[in-house]
Design a protein that fits this description.
The chain is α/β, with parallel strands linked by helices and 122 residues long. It contains four helices and five strands, in the order E-H-E-H-E-H-E-E-H. The protein has a five-stranded mixed sheet with strand order 1-3-2-4-5, with helices on both faces.
């Protein structure tokens, strides 16, 4: 099992272009990738992000962590929906490896501990 101590900080890589997104999707075959889609003006999204960050305990050990600011980069979010077939939501977490979606949840269903358990068992 993983430590119950939260990470002091998470090393989010910010996605800022469609080309970067495509490279991430292409490279996720070697190590899973977690994409957190966040609306910076939404109180619910901010609460879910804080909760996720407080519960996440493994840093980037199990997967690479990517953050998408939806207000600044809505076109990238639309591209995520087009490439994955998952309807846009906010907040939303998608975990993928290669072309396989391992986890997808929105709002209060986003569960950092569940994601960590899933990644540890795969």
């Amino acid at each position: 099992m993983f430590s119950s101590k939260k990470c002091e900080f998470l090393l989010w890589e910010h996605i800022v272009s469609v080309d970067q997104l495509r490279e991430i999707l292409k490279g996720a075959g070697e190590k899973p990738a977690l994409l957190f889609k966040h609306s910076t003006r939404c109180g619910v999204s901010s609460m879910v992000l804080r909760s996720f960050e407080n519960e996440w305990t493994t840093g980037t050990e199990l997967c690479d962590l990517y953050y998408l600011d939806l207000l600044s980069h809505r076109a990238i979010s639309n591209e995520v929906a087009g490439l994955t077939g998952i309807t846009h939501q906010s907040p939303q977490v998608i975990v993928f490896t290669g072309e396989e979606i391992l986890y997808n949840a929105t709002h209060s269903a986003i569960d950092a501990l569940k994601i960590q358990s899933l990644l540890m068992s795969s």
